[in-house]
Amino acid sequence: QKEVEQNSGPLSVPEGAIASLNCTYSDRGSQSFFWYRQYSGKSPELIMSIYSNGDKEDGRFTAQLNKASQYVSLLIRDSQPSDSATYLCAVFTGGGNKLTFGTGTQLKVEL
Amino acid sequence: SAVISQKPSRDICQRGTSLTIQCQVDSQVTMMFWYRQQPGQSLTLIATANQGSEATYESGFVIDKFPISRPNLTFSTLTVSNMSPEDSSIYLCSVELGRAYEQYFGPGTRLTVT
Known about the structure:
The complex is a heterodimer.
Chain A: E1 4-5, E2 11-14, E3 19-25, E4 32-38, E5 45-50, E6 54-58, E7 61-66, E8 71-76, E9 85-93, E10 98-101, E11 105-110
Parallel strand pairs in A: 2-11
Antiparallel strand pairs in A: 1-3, 3-8, 4-5, 4-9, 6-7, 7-8, 9-10, 9-11
Chain B: E1 4-7, E2 10-13, E3 19-25, E4 31-37, E5 43-50, E6 56-57, E7 68-72, E8 75-80, E9 89-96, E10 103-105, E11 109-113
Parallel strand pairs in B: 2-11
Antiparallel strand pairs in B: 1-3, 3-8, 4-5, 4-9, 5-6, 7-8, 9-10, 9-11
């Protein structure tokens, strides 16, 4: 089992819709969770951090964390073509003292 | 966040040679990291570089192949030694800033080994 798993996609959503990106992780002791956005040919950009169960909202982005289910998700409301990118889930594992990245989900927002 | 720069942005190198990649940040940071991202893949941590101590390498990466320097709190270098085509990749540095374990990435160095 991979430490951090994401569906590679592509996930296609129409402009204005809600995009839902999901991530599961294997280390039950993980405490810190991150979403990065990576445009083609660019480096990853941190867009959300979440540390406790529940929802965290920042503009059009909402991160959701459920530690019991070892599940973290990212919702993007009112999706725009400029949101088209690969979204990487990252989990800080205390045992390894490092960030572990998923393989990313490619999101395509279509006009 | 911080402004992080890397040099060079890209390079094409011959097998058997070495390339040193520089990472500069505009504020003092304790933790710096080096990652590799191969085409179409996610990020793999090479090593963690703390100022004043030896770099800590992840499984599969060794100091002889990827020596790292961390002379001060704003600068680090990664050398890719005795390169082969399998080393063709994007190399990224990151720094830990802000809230717990948040990492911010430099623009990356795209390396092609022929």
